[in-house]
Amino acid sequence: LNKYKNIMPESAVLHEQFVLYYEAIIMEKEGEEKQTILKLLYNAINLTRPDYKEKTSRTVLYSNIEINIIYHLFTYEDYTEEMLSPVFRFVEQMYDVEEKRDILIPFYLFLVRRYEREEKFSEMKRISEQAISLLQKGRSYLYVTEFYFYLVKARYQLYKATKEWEIEKDELVELCNEIYYMSMIIEDEEMMENVIQFCEENLECQITM
User: Fold this and answer.
1) Mean model confidence pLDDT for the chain
2) Smallest Cα–Cα separation from 131: which of 114, 111, 157?
3) pLDDT in tens, 68-107
């Protein structure tokens, strides 16, 4: 990175943005303080996108490096989903399925975990369903079981005290069995144990072998 910095043109904004971003990533891996990392990320995004927090309904174009910077800012700050909508809209319109998955799944994963912590179960369910819809277009089980399990937990919280619970419970039991067997295929023992525990504690059932 230092060699690259030494040879890059002084007036090349995109080169400077590249260097600032990767300096932030290196500091992140080295455990540097949050504010130091944020300062580099702010400086990087402000070079090309000083209005990145503004809400807009129009399609905004983003470079890959800008999306990466925004993702890292998002993980450090209290961004709302609405603030990310221009990025999501751009990715949905401009990228193929494989690229969408690579870009959007990290955002969805961070959002669904945040919504679970905040006990926003309707939002948790919606994001899980969006992620599953995207992941099902691929060939890998990577992240599929995780989002299905978030979906199960969200639906449990939303329906456990309603008159629809008995029907919902049967569907969740079936879904848990599917998650368990998918996890078995990819040898994810931690997920298998989590599903077994969830079923016993919340659905009063056991995984059928």
Assistant:
1) 90
2) 111
3) 999 999 988 867 888 888 899 999 999 999 999 999 999 9
- The Cα 106–Cα 61 span in angstroms is 20
Q: What sign results for the dihedral spanned by CA atoms 15, 42, 39, 34?
A: negative
| pLDDT tens digits for range 65-75 | 999 999 999 98
Q: What is the pLDDT of residue 9?
A: 53
pTM for the predicted model, two decimal places:
0.86
User: What is the C-alpha to C-alpha distance for residues 195 and 38, in angstroms, rounded to an integer?
Assistant: 37
Block residue for tokens 């174009």: 61
DSSP state letter for 200: I
Identify each DSSP E strand in 43-156 by its residue range: none
Cβ-based neighbours of 162, under 8 Å, separated by 6 or more:
168
Helix (H, G, I), strand (E, B) or coil at 101: helix
Q: Is the dihedral of CA 103, 104, 107, 109 positive or negative?
A: negative
d(Cα 45, Cα 65) in Å, to the nearest integer?
Answer: 9
Burial of 14 (0-12, 13-18, 19+ CB in 10 A): middle
166 Cβ contact list (under 8 Å, min separation 6): none
